[in-house]
Amino acid sequence: RNRTPIADRPGSVDGRRRLGDWEGDTVVGKGRSGYVMTNVDRASRYLLTRKLERPTATAVETAMVETMRRMPAAKRRTQTFDNGREFSGHESISRRLRLAVFFADPYSSWQRGTNENTNGLLRQYLPKSRDFESLTSHELASYTWQLNNRPRKCLNYRTPAEVFHERLLRFRC
Asked: Beta strands of 42-168 (E only): which ranges?
């Protein structure tokens, strides 16, 4: 209900020039044994993750708010989700984080390509055959750190962490 389509997202988001335009999703463990919420900044490819026991709207909202509140408000501009039920709390997420939430068109995963690509990279550590019940927060944080510190061709071989923190510091000065 009350979804804002990706077609209404500001054109500036497509330019990837500013921090704060995020794409979110959930990654599922083997046999639905657990879930990982992923959130990726479009400009820097900086990844935030959180383990979820269940992919409910309440669990996703709580994890999203706890994770994103650590970001300066100016680095929380937009959020783009797919059409999963777990994002049905989008109005509360939008209100609590003061960011605009948009939804990709159904069956159009390419509209959130940054997140889909990053989930693919995360799958190198968490393959589809992996049961997430035994996944610890420490282990997930290690995988996230490794991805945030891996050089990317699309960033001129800089790391997402370098790009994100450089732009974050530039903003604060």
From this structure: 47-52, 78-81, 100-103
